[in-house]
Amino acid sequence: MTEWGLFTASDMSTIARATALAERLTQAYFGLAQDEWTNWPCGVFTLKQIDHELYREDTFAQVIRYRDSSPRSGDNRQADAFGIVLQDPNILQALLRSTDHDLWTIGLFLLTHELIHIVRFRRFNVDFFASESDRDREEELVQEMTREILSGVSNTDLILSLYGPNFDRIDQVIRPDEGVLNAHIRVPVRELRC
């Protein structure tokens, strides 16, 4: 971790490993064929790689939709792609406030959660620009799927209990603040207490 709150090379290696496992778990959960999975352009970005307008001080991650101009096997058309923007300063601050978490666990949780959204946008035609009430229902559904996918994975029990559907219990452990309206979902901000 750096004093500026950006991921280091070591942190990015951890995120790459968490991404690989999140992809495998999500692919297996939805029964996606390898070719279906690889045909869906999806990138994972950090603050160093994105336009600073995409930085949100009150979220850990968000899904973005963009035009992918890289050519696909003989097809020169641009395609819609989805990406996950990890808000590294926010993630690192949460890690500094707690000795109970590590980057691997938080990264795995965030990436799995956001990949579920992307699968639902792609395969189940969930509206990326849905109304706030539809986004809230979608968030509850994705949260439950995240819990199902990660239950039993080492070190995920605490993070699942903090960011689960039981908000009364969460309030005892974390402090909810104002939320932010992302492009796809309203993400409540929760700061882990030391």
Overview of this protein structure:
By secondary structure, the chain is α+β, with helices and mostly antiparallel strands. The chain has one domain. Helices cover 46% and strands 15% of the residues. It has helices at residues 9-30, 34-38, 88-97, 103-123, 132-150, 157-162, 167-173, and strands at residues 42-45, 61-68, 79-86, 174-176, 180-181, 186-187, 190-192. The strands form three sheets. A three-stranded mixed beta sheet has the order 1-3-2, covered by helices on one side. Helix 1 packs across helix 4 and helix 4 (103-123) packs across helix 5. The longest helix is centred in the first third of the chain and has 22 residues, at 9-30. It is globular. The two termini are 18 Å apart.
Query: Averaged pLDDT, please?
Result: 77
| Number of distinct helices | 7
Beta-strand share of residues: 15-25%
In total, how many domains does the architecture comprise? Answer: 1
Low-confidence stretches: 166-194
Helix content: 40-55%
Overall radius of gyration = 16 Å
Major beta-sheet overview: 3 strands, mixed
Quickly list its features.
two-stranded antiparallel sheet; three-stranded mixed sheet; alpha+beta; single chain; globular; 7 strands
Short note summarizing the structure:
The chain is α+β, with helices and mostly antiparallel strands. It has one domain. Helix content is 46%, strand content 15%.
